[in-house]
C-alpha cells in the first residue's frame, strides 16, 4: 500500500475519533436552554466528520486514480537522502524548544545556530561562533527593543 | 474613487510605509531567490514582525512587498541558475536560462523586471477598477450567502490546486476545517475537542500552523536533498534592451497582464497556472518563425510568464480584499495576519477602513516601481546570496521559523507543536497531498462556522439552503466544482501534467 493510502487510513482514524466525540460525547453536557437552539456546538463538527470519513475512504479505496508523477523526493528511497541530518535537526529544534525558557534566549539560540551548522557538516568553529553570536544579539535586540516583546535573555540564576 | 486614491497616496507615502515597501521588496527578493523557499514560507516567517507592528496598513504593505519581491527573486534564480525559487517562476526558466547561457543574463533580467513591472501595474489598475464593483455586490450578501461563498471558494481551491487529485485536496481542506473547530468558539463559548489540554483551549496557533505547513517542510526538503546552487559564474552586465525588443514584447505584456490577472482572481488558480498558461498561449499565437525560438531564449517566451505571474499575484488580492475569502495559500496567510490585527477583510473593508484598501493598492504601484528601479541594478549584488553556504543558511531558516512561532504566543509548547506538525506536513508532502488547502480551510473554518450558525439561527434550521436561491445556486456551483474535475480526471487518466504545486 502506497504512503498516500496509509495516510488516508490514519486520517480516517482521526475523522472517526473526531466523529465519535462530536456525535456521542458532546451533546450530553449541553445546557437545557441551548438544546432549543437549532444549532449546537456539535452540529458543524458532525457534518465535517461525515465528509472527512467519506473523502478518506475515497482515497483509501483508490476510487480516484492518482496520477503518477515524479516526486521531488521519493520517500521509498528515503535512506539515500540526508535523512540523518534532517532527523538530528528536528531533534535539535525540540531541544531548543525545551531549553529556551530555562537557559535563556542568548545561550540557547547561539547553541542552536552553532550545532545546526555542525550537524550540516561545518567545522570552522571560529566563523560559526562569530556568526551565531552576532545573529543572536541582533535578533534579540530587534525582538526586545524594536518589537518590544520580552524574552528572557539569560538563565534564571544569572538574573535574566 | 479619486478620493480613495488620495487617501491611499496619503497613507502609502508616509516615510514608514515607504520603508516598509522597500524593505519588504528587498527581503522578498533575497529569500525568494533561494531555491526551495517559496513566497508562502517567507510571508509566514515575516508575519510575527508584521503583526507586532500593530498598524494594519503598514503590515499589509510590508507583506505584499515581500510577496512581489519573492516572485521577482524567484525569477532571478530561474534565469541565472535554472533553479526556480518559486513554483510560479518555473516557466520563466524555459527561455530565461537559455538566454543567460548565451551571455544575455543582464538582458533577460531586465526583460523579466520590465514584464513583472508592467504585469503588476496593470494588475493593480484592474484591481482598482474591479474590487470596488465586486465589493458593492458583496454587500448584498447575507450570512447564508457568505457560508455558500466560502464553500465555493474551498471547493474551487480543492478543484484547481491539486493536479487532478480532488479527493486529496478536499480531505486536506476538511482536515483544516476540523482543526479550526478545536478550542473555544466565539459562538458557544464552550471548549471543544481540547482533550483537556490547556494549551489547546484557544485552538491551534495560526502562525504555528502556517510555519509548520510551509516553512518547515521546505527547509527539511533542502536538508534532505541539497540543491546545486552553482551558477555559470557569468558576469551580469549589459542590462539594456533595444527598442525593437521592447516593441516585440509590448503586445505580449498587454495580453498577459489581462489574462494573468483574471486567472489570479479565480480561487485556487494562482501565479503558477497563470505563468504556464501564459507561456503556452504566447507560443501558440506567435508567428511560425518565432515559435521555434521558444525554449531557446525567446524574449517573448520570457516576458509572457513573467507578466502573467505578477498580474496573477495582484489578481489574487481581489477575492481577499472584496470578499474576505483567500484564493491561494499566500493570501490565506495575509488574511490570517489581518484578522490578528483586528481587521476583517471583506466588502466592509472599503467602507470601514478605506485607507487600508487604498494604501495597499498604492503600495502595489510603489512596490513594482521599487522592484524595477531599485532591485534591478542591485541584482548582481543580491545574487551573491546564492553563494551563502547552505550549512549556515539552513540553521537560520529553522531558527526564524521557530522564532516566528514563539514571539506570536510567547509559549514554548507552541514550538513543540510546530515541530510535530512540521513532521506531519513533510509526510503529507511526500505522499503528494497539497498543503495549502489545509491552511485555507483552517483560516476560513471559524468564519464559515459562524456564518453557518447565524443562518441556521435565522431560519431555524437548514431551510436557508433552498429558501435563498443565491445560496442554493452557489452551493450547486460548489458541488459541480468538486464532481466535474474528478469525472474529467477519470476520462483523461492518461494525460499527465507536469505542473508544480500552487503558490
TrEMBL record, chain A:
The keyword Transmembrane applies. Pfam families: TctB (PF07331). The chain crosses the membrane at residues 7-24, 44-63, 86-119, 125-143. Keywords: Membrane, Transmembrane, Transmembrane helix. Residues 6-151 form the DUF1468 domain. The keyword Transmembrane applies. This is Tripartite tricarboxylate transporter TctB family protein.
From TrEMBL, chain B:
The chain crosses the membrane at residues 20-45, 79-97, 109-134, 146-164, 171-191, 203-224, 261-281, 325-344, 356-379, 391-408, 468-487. The keyword Transferase does not apply. It comes from the Bacteria. It comes from Boseongicola aestuarii. This is Tripartite tricarboxylate transporter TctA family protein. Residues 18-439 form the DUF112 domain. Pfam families: TctA. Keywords: Membrane, Transmembrane, Transmembrane helix.
Amino acid at each position: 500500500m502506497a504512503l498516500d493510502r496509509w495516510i488516508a487510513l490514519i486520517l480516517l482514524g482521526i475523522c472517526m475519533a473526531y466523529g465519535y466525540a462530536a456525535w456521542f460525547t458532546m451533546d450530553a453536557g449541553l445546557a437545557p436552554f441551548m438544546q432549543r437552539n437549532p444549532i449546537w456546538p456539535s452540529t458543524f463538527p458532525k457534518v465535517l466528520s461525515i465528509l472527512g470519513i467519506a473523502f478518506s475512504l475515497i482515497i483509501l479505496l483508490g476510487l480516484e486514480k492518482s496520477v503518477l508523477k515524479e516526486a521531488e523526493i521519493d520517500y521509498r528511497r528515503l535512506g539515500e537522502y540526508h535523512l540523518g541530518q534532517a532527523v538530528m535537526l528536528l531533534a535539535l529544534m525540540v531541544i531548543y524548544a525545551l531549553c529556551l525558557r530555562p537557559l535563556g534566549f542568548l545561550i540557547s539560540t547561539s547553541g542552536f545556530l552553532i550545532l545546526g551548522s555542525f550537524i550540516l557538516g561545518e567545522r570552522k568553529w571560529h566563523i560559526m561562533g562569530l556568526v551565531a553570536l552576532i545573529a543572536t544579539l541582533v535578533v534579540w535586540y530587534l525582538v526586545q527593543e524594536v518589537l518590544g516583546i520580552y524574552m528572557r535573555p539569560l538563565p534564571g540564576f544569572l538574573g535574566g | 474613487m479619486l478620493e480613495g486614491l488620495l487617501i491611499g497616496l496619503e497613507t502609502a507615502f508616509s516615510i514608514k510605509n515607504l520603508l516598509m515597501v522597500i524593505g519588504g521588496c528587498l527581503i522578498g527578493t533575497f529569500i525568494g531567490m533561494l531555491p526551495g523557499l517559496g513566497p508562502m514560507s517567507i510571508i509566514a516567517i515575516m508575519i510575527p514582525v508584521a503583526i507586532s507592528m500593530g498598524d494594519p496598513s503598514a503590515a499589509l504593505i510590508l507583506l505584499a512587498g515581500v510577496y512581489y519581491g519573492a516572485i521577482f527573486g524567484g525569477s532571478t534564480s530561474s534565469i541565472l541558475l535554472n533553479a526556480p525559487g518559486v513554483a510560479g517562476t518555473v516557466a520563466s526558466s524555459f527561455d530565461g536560462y537559455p538566454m543567460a547561457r548565451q551571455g544575455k543574463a543582464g538582458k533577460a533580467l531586465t526583460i523579466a523586471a520590465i514584464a513583472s513591472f508592467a504585469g503588476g501595474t496593470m494588475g493593480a489598475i484592474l484591481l482598482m477598477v474591479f474590487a470596488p464593483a465586486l465589493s458593492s455586490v458583496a454587500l448584498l450578501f447575507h450570512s447564508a450567502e457568505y457560508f455558500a461563498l466560502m464553500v465555493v471558494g474551498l471547493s474551487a481551491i480543492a478543484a484547481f490546486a491539486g493536479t487532478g487529485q480532488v479527493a486529496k485536496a478536499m480531505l486536506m481542506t476538511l482536515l483544516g476545517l476540523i482543526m479550526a473547530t478545536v478550542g473555544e468558539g466565539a459562538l458557544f463559548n464552550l471548549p471543544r475537542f481540547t482533550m483537556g489540554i490547556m494549551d489547546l483551549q484557544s485552538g491551534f496557533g495560526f502562525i504555528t500552523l502556517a510555519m509548520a505547513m510551509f516553512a518547515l517542510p521546505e527547509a527539511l526538503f533542502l536538508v534532505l536533498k541539497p540543491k546545486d546552487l552553482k551558477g555559470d559564474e557569468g558576469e551580469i552586465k549589459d542590462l539594456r534592451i533595444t527598442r525593437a525588443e521592447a516593441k516585440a514584447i509590448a503586445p505580449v505584456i498587454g495580453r498577459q497582464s489581462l489574462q494573468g490577472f483574471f486567472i489570479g482572481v479565480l480561487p485556487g488558480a494562482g501565479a503558477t497556472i497563470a505563468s504556464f498558461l501564459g507561456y503556452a498561449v504566447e507560443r501558440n499565437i506567435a508567428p511560425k518563425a518565432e515559435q521555434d525560438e521558444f525554449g531557446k531564449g525567446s524574449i517573448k517566451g520570457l516576458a509572457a510568464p513573467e507578466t502573467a505571474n505578477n498580474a496573477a499575484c495582484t489578481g489574487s488580492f481581489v477575492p481577499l480584499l472584496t470578499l474576505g475569502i483567500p484564493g491561494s495559500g499566500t493570501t490565506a496567510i495575509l488574511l490570517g495576519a489581518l484578522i490578528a490585527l483586528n481587521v476583517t477583510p471583506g466588502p466592509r473593508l472599503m467602507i470601514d477602513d478605506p485607507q487600508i484598501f487604498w494604501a495597499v493598492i498604492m503600495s502595489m504601484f510603489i512596490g513594482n516601481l521599487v522592484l524595477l528601479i531599485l532591485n534591478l541594478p542591485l541584482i548582481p549584488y543580491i545574487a551573491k546570496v546564492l553563494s551563502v553556504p547552505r550549512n549556515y543558511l539552513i540553521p537560520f531558516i529553522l531558527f526564524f521559523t521557530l522564532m516566528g512561532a514563539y514571539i506570536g504566543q510567547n509559549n514554548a509548547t507552541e514550538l513543540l507543536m510546530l515541530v510535530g506538525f512540521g513532521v506531519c506536513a513533510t509526510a503529507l508532502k511526500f505522499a503528494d497531498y497539497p498543503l495549502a488547502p489545509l491552511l485555507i480551510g483552517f483560516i476560513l473554518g471559524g468564519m464559515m462556522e459562524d456564518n453557518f450558525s447565524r443562518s441556521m439561527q435565522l431560519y431555524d434550521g437548514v431551510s436557508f439552503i433552498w429558501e435563498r436561491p443565491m445560496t442554493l445556486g452557489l452551493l450547486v456551483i460548489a458541488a459541480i466544482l468538486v464532481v466535474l474535475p474528478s469525472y474529467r480526471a477519470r476520462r483523461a487518466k492518461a494525460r499527465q501534467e507536469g505542473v508544480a504545486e500552487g503558490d
